[in-house]
Amino acid sequence: MTNNSLLVLVISSGVGYGTPLLYAALGEVLAERTGVLNLGVEGMMLVGAVMGFWTVQRIHIGSTLVLAAAIGVAALAAAAMALIHAFLVVTLRANQIVSGLALTIFAGAGGLSSYLGNDLNLSGAPARHQFTEPLPNSLQNLKIVGPILFGQSVLVYASWLFVALVAVYLRWTRAGLNARAVGESPAAADAMGIDVVRYRYLHTIAGGALAGIGGATFSLWLTPQWVDGLTEGAGWIAIALVIFAFWRPTFCLVGAYFFGALTALPFALQAHNVHISGDLIQTIPYAATVVVLVLVSSAVARRRLGAPAALGRPYVREER
Amino acid sequence: MRIERRLEQPRWLSFVVPAVAIALATLLGGLVLLVTGHAPVKSFRRLFEAAFTAKGALSATVVSATPLAFTGLCAAVAFRMNLFNIGGEGQLYGGAITGATAGLLLAHSPSPVAIGAMVLAGAAGGALVAAIPGFLRAFLATNEIITSLMLNYVVGLILTYLIFDTHSYLRETKGFEAQVFPQGKTLPASATWPSWTVHGLALPLGFLVAAGLAFAVWGLYARTRFGFEVQVIGDSSRAARYAGMRTRRKILAVMCLSGALAGIGGASQDGDFRHQLDPRGLTAAGYGYAGIVIAALGRYNPFAVVVLAFGLGGLQNAGYTLQSADFPAGLVGVMEGLILFCALGGEIFVRYRVRFERRAPKAPTAALEPEPSP
After folding, report:
1. A66-98: buried (b, 16+ CB within 10 Å) or exposed (e) per residue?
2. Which residues of A touch B136 (CB under 8 A)?
3. What ipTM was reported for this prediction?
4. Closest by alpha carbon to A254, among A43, A26, A1, A37?
5. Model confidence over B10-22: pLDDT tens digits?
């Protein structure tokens, strides 16, 4: 098997395409574990993508610095979007589903991200700085593992770090346990003296920041440019991925690469001159999500597998 | 400050809150424009003129409003039962595919037959797409939000495939233009839906059908046993099951009804406006998502949906008309989002009463207890 073989190509680019999904899904895990369902991921990713791209185009400092700044700006911008959702659903007790959709309409394609992209004059130009594959060629050219493990951008390696951080946080830290308590039984958590409102705000906002980094992964590495609606539904796949991964950060990693590989498959096949309709292959990730959802959706499975019990429910102390 | 649940929701609030929401959203939108260096008043005036007062603008607004009325009804019917069908988009595509097929097949039939068949085929197509998440939700307890959403992408890709990637029955294969750029077959004259002009305002058949369906939906929900049961299930599915209502069948039925409404919207796109199956145009428009905004803003009332579709249609129509370098792109989406945010935020004033009063100094726990008697 050579490094140009179909399988290696699919897996290595699958890791790439899976990375934005992974960031966004990790963020959504944080929010959902405290009981806040945020369907605005697509919008938050797009705002992150456009603002990250703006940073590299307009700020003139060293390449490494500007890329770091771009990631920061993307995270902040998307976190601001998440704040709107948090305010509506936590403070004003609005319907989480409608509010999340509103966020996607507000921020997504045809909304704020398009407005910003147009107003800041960002479309059409290639990125001035972009993430590259930093490891030495000797490693990248290793058989099979080279392109898959070593031929990736810093964003991929950083995402592994985030998986570990989120996993450890949720499992072994006091704050993480408190956060899960808020998602399972806000009334009990409240009685324990945990500030439900604060936990929900902070985790929703942190989730937004991660979604923003996921969006910036598109505009600064995968397709280093800005086009309207750049993420093409990745935010929605990320939401499905969270369920697919049973709300566990480590499973998100596997799921993200699986979905990433399916996205990469049509391109890889094209490179090998196999003609199958790209449109039809691209339906696979979406159809697969439906199938997986069906498999994990029996009530017993859900309880065992860890759906936060209070997911989607506003917490009102006076009405418990 | 105290927030307490209202025992009764006064009727006037359900009119005042959306009105205030729209006003507040306009203010916030103006702020966005101001911060980014556009003149808000001028932008809004241009928006309003292009939507309603310019010559022919009202007719163009009706064209934009028609699909929104259908997808708005689609969302309202399902959301009223706490069934979050956000697949109006895909269901509209499904209806557009079956509607166009029916129109092409019946090229030699008299026009009323062809049009009637298109409406039925569109309804069936939309219902079929919606039946999948409906069935999964009803019998396998699968979350309908994600499944209906995923189908939007699946059906959208199938729609694109039918015209761009295969020589299907629906695709035009003759002629120079069709060789260069793939497009759908033009529908025959018998499949062209009529439109009537009243005082210079063109009313397409689709809009009248949507208005009629809004009335039918109102009747169904307010005047029949089916509608009553749907609302009980929406409020408390456990109570409904206890009362012996067949919740599963009802979920499937409401999903199919919801999809059928969006599907007729798809057929109306073929017959009223586009006269061919037009994947690029349909997928770019985002009718389904806008329909959800309308339904939520209208608090799932079918008549409010039609009125709001007209308003939002104006906004979208203005967005297309003003698509140029000097008018901010994306403003329409921003405005839709802001209106929805404000309406959602305003909902708390409908459901809760906010009281400003000084807290009794001696009893810090008073907030948790009922009013002390004097």
Report:
1. bbeebbbbbbebbbbbbebbbbbbbebbbbbbb
2. 290, 293-294, 297
3. 0.88
4. A26
5. 778 777 887 888 8
